[in-house]
Amino acid sequence: MHYLSHFHQGIDYDAIIEIHEQRQRWVNQQKKGFLRYRQPFERLSARQAEFTDCTTDTVTIGRAEEISSEIRQDIKEQLRCFMPWRKGPFSVFGIDIDAEWRSERKWNRLRDRLPDLSNKIVADIGCNNGYYMFRMVPTGPKLVLGFEPAVQHYYCFKSLNGMAGFDNLEVDLLGVEHLALFPEAFDVIFLMGIIYHHSAPIDILRNVHSALAPGGTLLIESQAIPGSEPLALFPERTYAKVPGTYFVPTATTLEYWLERAGFAQVEQFCTHPMNSDEQRSTEWMIFESYEDYIDPENPSLTVEGYPAPWRVFLSAVKR
To answer: Is-contact 121 7, C-beta < 8 A?
Structure first.
């Protein structure tokens, strides 16, 4: 847990270490569900890339000419153990990984709104395989800590960074609820595609607020319903076939939530409707995707009859 050395004395070291050790014991069990991800991680992370590039839309780890075709085939087989790939694109030793989400589009929408990340401590909540963390590398952060409770994504990131070797990127099996253990610890927090999966969104935002240092910045991206009214959809069972979706707000509602949670300088800087070009099935994500979630007769509605999703981006500052 070398990442703890970057934090001030006000964080709850004992509780963080206890949770870390508890979850490491859990994830290191000799069970099939864990081994299916831990074994490819152990194989992949042993291979160090000579070249990395996080400045372009595709995060590149290793060139094709660094390895033989036989080794490349083995690496590809190990990488496919982490399917479905949700975030990307990546290129790993010449293997192109076309993920479900065109995540570079989301990054490009917020890139011009990034605060200075140089020598800063950053949290990426629900970091998935770390695509956005890798894109932060060229900005020179002191530490980017990914909070990722899902074993699949945890080991996927660790595999990628094991090959890339960035010592200022780290991940732990933590969730947004653990931010309370990090009071005033982060200069910047990314909360991308998370808030609508929680039944008490303002409580989540208050936790985020408490974890930011004074003057710190939150960048939040969320699924939303269209409109400017202060409303939120509460689906009966699923929204766009996704269970575990609670409140889907308008951008205005999300703005009000942020203000209620104590944030200042709340600003919407991008809203757009979703489409099947940005989220779709690929060779690396072979299951249903956006077009399967939308009413084929009326693309303005989900299959349940709710308004089809937009995506909204906001920034906010802790006073």
So the answer is: yes
CA angle 142, 87, 76 (to 5 degrees): 100
Domain that holds residue 271: 12-318
Q: Are strands 232-233 and 95-97 parallel, antiparallel or unpaired?
A: unpaired
- Give the separation between CA 284 and CA 83, rounded to whole angstroms: 6
Q: What is the DSSP letter of 166?
A: -
Helix ranges (DSSP H) in the chain: 13-27, 32-44, 69-79, 103-111, 131-136, 151-164, 201-211, 251-260, 290-293
132 vs 147: CA distance, rounded Å = 12
9 pLDDT band (50/70/90 cuts)?
Answer: very high
Instruction: Annotate 90-106 with b (16+ C-beta within 10 A) or e (fewer).
Output: bbbbbbebebbbbbbeb
Contact 314, 267 (CB under 8 A): yes
Residues 139-185: tens digit of each pLDDT: 999 999 999 999 999 999 999 999 999 999 999 999 999 999 999 99
Domain of residue 42, CATH code? 3.40.50.150
Task: Give the number of domains in the chain.
Answer: 1
